[in-house]
Amino acid sequence: MKKKIKYAVILVVVLAIVGVFVFSAMQPLMVATVTITPSHAEMYFTERGHVQDDRHVNVYSMVGGAVLSVAVREGQFIHEGDVIATVDPVDLLHEIEQIRAGNLAIYAQIDNLSVEESQARSSQASARNVLQSELNAINAQEQMARTTELSGQQMRDENIRLQNILIEQSFADLQNALNDLERVQGLYIAGIMTRLEVEANEQVVEALRTAHQVNQQQLEIINNDSITDQSEHFAALRSSIQAQINGINTSLNELSMEPMRRSFYAQIESNNLSIANLERRVANSTIVSPVSGIIENLQIDSINILNPAMPVAEIRTEVENLVEVFVSTANITDLSVGDIVDLIFLRQGGDAVYSGRIYSISDRAEATVSILGVEERRARVLIEPVTPSDSFRSGFDVDVRFITYSANDQMLVPRTAVFEENGQSMVYVATNGTATARPVAVGTQLRTEFVVESGLSVGDVVIRDARQSGLSSGARIAY
User: Is it the case that residue 165 has pLDDT exceeding 70?
Assistant: First the structure.
């Protein structure tokens, strides 16, 4: 009786546990969501600056070289954008021409790749046809041998003839591989191919050299041995020739100049970027003033060869209370003279925020050390306050908020809502209590959100965490 009661209790517990699991499995998955509404999207970064007590701006050149002309004099008032001097860009122009000539040579090699690939395919196909003909001849000879007794010398002579064909083919394969290795080594020296690609070609050469040596050794064995079993003789010949045919088929399937062609195009793209950079430097050989003011010191007037580390001129501006801030070179390309910024003074009773305008951006970066002891390269940026205020006192700290992206009426989703599926950005949309995976096109990446360019509409409900456990397309959800 006690055993029955014990078994009944165990059964009730098991059924209860099963019931809990079944109940849990039938419940919808609780998820957090966001409803798509038109929103303002903004990307910014903040740097600490200070109100400077010096209204002088040093002008630097982006390039060095012989000074061709100086267009201003000390004591002269100049406007922003006026030409100060010009530097001879002949060395830069010569470098551009050299790179362009290199590109022409690479294009010629790309054209030659197609010719080489066509020739290699034709040569290997011809060799395969020859071997196939010999294989057919062997089959015919074996058929004949069944009715005609061949002497050992006849079989040896035929075996020697066929082995010489195999030796010629393996030697041709080895020579082609050596030519490929020589070309790849030249491209490696030129910086186009990697060391791994050179080593891979070296391994191919060694494998083919070994195969050629084995074929030569096999010929010596044939010359020294007598053949008594015709069936073994023909089987060995067929196996050897078929191996050569299989090798050629594999080579034809793998023969492609596409990796090398891609390497060439990558080199051309890199060269084009170098040309674009050099052309920008050529444009900067005309030195213009970043600000309006009076030239107090014209250093370039007393030198023939300009060093980019030396200031060209010192200009005293007519603007007071400029804010000086140093911006990382990683962010400086996002800024332009005239951009509006926020100037923030930290106050216990509430921060005071004023509008400012970028007055000038230095053409050179200086080495600075962060509070963590890391050396960084930063460029000097001057900010002109738009609204006068007593807050702008000499030496006062001020936070400068640079807005690098701003747009209204954007559809935003949390970055955690986006996942990748076969290279396509996706989100889960809540539809009638079910999670549905939907492809989207994402644009600008903000700090915690993505701007969605297409795939969503106003009012769509998007699940915030696409990686939530148990979440998949078709899953029942609640929110």
Answer: yes
Q: How far apart are CA 111 and CA 97, in angstroms?
A: 21
Q: Are both 414 and 305 inside the same structural domain?
A: no
Cα 237–Cα 239–Cα 241 angle in degrees, nearest 5? 70
* pLDDT 10s digits, 356-395: 999 888 877 777 766 666 778 888 898 989 887 888 887 8
Which residues span the domain enclosing 144?
A: 95-273
Residue 101 sits in the same domain as residue 205: yes
293-297 and 311-317 as β-strands: parallel, antiparallel, unpaired? antiparallel
pLDDT at 100: 92
Q: What is the band of 152 on the pLDDT scale with cuts at 50, 70, 90?
A: low
CATH number of the CATH domain containing 468: 2.40.420.20
Residue pair 328/382 in contact (Cβ under 8 Å)? The answer is no
Residue 335 and residue 445: Cα distance in Å, rounded?
A: 18
At which residue do the structure tokens 């998955």 appear? 29
Does some domain include residue 418?
A: yes
- How far apart CA 79 and CA 118 sit, in angstroms, is 63
Contact between 394 and 49 (Cβ < 8 Å): no
Question: Is the per-residue pLDDT at 76 higher than 60?
Answer: yes
Q: Is the separation of the CB atoms in 426 and 439 below 8 Å?
A: yes
Domain identity same for 138 and 230: yes
Say yes or no: 146 and 235 in one domain: yes
Distance of alpha carbon 100 from alpha carbon 222, whole angstroms: 58
Token pair, residue 352, equals 């005071």
Task: Verify that 199 and 107 share a domain, yes or no.
Answer: yes
Q: At a CB cut-off of 8 Å and minimum separation 6, what does 40 contact?
A: 406, 407, 408, 410
Of 123, 44, 52, the C-alpha closest to 403 is 44
124 contacts 255 by C-beta, under 8 angstroms: yes
What is the Cα–Cα distance from 398 to 145, expressed in whole angstroms?
102
Q: What is the dihedral of CA 132, 133, 139, 143, to 10 degrees?
A: 170
**Exposed / middle / buried, residue 398 (Cβ in 10 Å: 0-12, 13-18, 19+):** buried
Q: How many domains does the chain have?
A: 3
Q: How far is CA 448 from the centre of its chain?
A: 24
Amino acid identity for residue 228 in this structure:
T
**Span between the terminal Cα atoms of the chain, in Å:** 50
Is pLDDT at 180 greater than 80 in this prediction?
A: no
HEC letters along 46-79: EEEEEECCCCEEEEECCCCEEEEEECCCCCCEEC
**C-alpha 336, offset from chain centre:** 27
Q: Confidence class of residue 210 from pLDDT cuts 50, 70 and 90?
A: confident
Q: What are phi and psi of 366, to 5 degrees?
A: -120, 150
What's the CA gap between 377 and 368, in Å, rounded? 6
